[in-house]
Write a structure and sequence with these properties.
The complex is a heterodimer of chains A (136) and B (140). Chain A is α+β, with helices and mostly antiparallel strands. Chain A contains two helices and six strands; from the N terminus they run H-E-E-E-E-E-E-H. Chain A is elongated, with a radius of gyration of 22 Å. In chain B, 48% of the residues lie in helices and 4% in strands. Chain B is elongated and about 65 Å long. Chain B has 140 residues and is mostly helical. The chains are: A alpha+beta (136), B mainly alpha (140).
């Protein structure tokens, strides 16, 4: 039945977006995680990726989380000579997380999640109408 | 003669199948709203003329099976695009995100809503037509 396939496809979207949300929350939570030792690297921002895969049972393109990549951009540095993780020049490396970018990403994930929920709701109503037909 | 072979019912059934199939394609579009290089797909609208003709001429024969790629070896994959009973139309939208994704969520939501409404219309027509038979049978 195609309606159940629609539900499964939308559910795969929900799963992928919530996985994305997990990575984003990890980034936000670690926005200020410096290194433990002087000179070492702090937390590196993670980037969620998506890939479309052909589900042979469904005969459709479902979506799944791909590999979580690391952001190779430079760390933020701050001059804090008293910090335990400061190098010999007094600079501390902070993670390359920009909370503004993460917030925007989070909104986008939320929006896509809601869109998938909307599809599930519409499909459920269509199934309900089909069942109601038997009662008429 | 089974009820499903009556032209009106077979047309409505094709219509409902079309909406089911379209819901699946739309769900795919929405789920892949953030996939790089994904382009939206949609079903071609049903053609009223050809439906009437096929309902009149060959109402007894069912709609032919899905159009598939030929698989000459059991290891061949038939592919997702060929699974549809109805023709899919690629959508050439001009707003493509930098990642190559061309899904417009608002557009898709509109399509899902209209698909649902049209499906409900078909369902209502189906039950009304059933009501005609009930009247003919004298069951009020």
């Amino acid at each position: 039945m195609d309606f159940l396939k629609s539900l499964t496809i939308a559910a795969s979207g929900l799963r992928a977006q919530s996985g994305r949300m997990r990575v984003i929350s990890e980034n936000i939570a670690n926005a200020d995680s410096t290194a433990q030792r002087p000179g070492a690297s702090p937390y590196r921002r993670k980037i969620p990726t998506f890939r479309s895969e052909v589900d042979r049972a469904l005969e459709a393109n479902t979506i799944a989380m791909g590999k979580v990549r690391q952001d190779p951009s430079d760390f933020r540095t701050k001059y804090e000579p008293g910090h335990p993780a400061a190098d010999q020049n007094g600079y501390v490396k902070y993670p390359n997380v920009n909370s503004l970018v993460e917030m925007t990403d989070m909104r986008e994930a939320q929006r896509s999640y809601e869109a998938n929920l909307n599809v599930i709701g519409a499909t459920r109503r269509m199934i309900q109408r089909t069942i109601d037909m038997l009662r008429a | 003669m089974p009820i499903s072979d009556i032209p009106l019912f077979s047309m409505l059934r094709t219509r409902m199948q079309w909406h089911q199939e379209r819901q699946k394609v739309l769900a795919e579009n929405v789920a892949n709203a953030d996939t790089p290089n994904f382009r939206t797909r949609d079903l071609k609208p049903l053609d009223f003329g050809s439906q009437v003709q096929s309902a009149g001429v060959q109402s007894a024969s069912q709609a032919g099976g899905p159009v598939r790629l030929a698989a000459t070896d059991p290891a061949h994959i038939t592919g997702a695009a060929g699974s549809s009973t109805f023709a899919t139309a690629g959508n050439s939208k001009y707003d493509v995100k930098p990642a190559g994704n061309a899904v417009n969520l608002e557009d898709e939501m509109m399509k899902v809503a209209s698909n649902q409404m049209d499906y409900q219309a078909a369902i209502s027509l189906y039950s009304r037509s059933m009501g005609l038979f009930r009247t003919a049978l004298g069951k009020r």
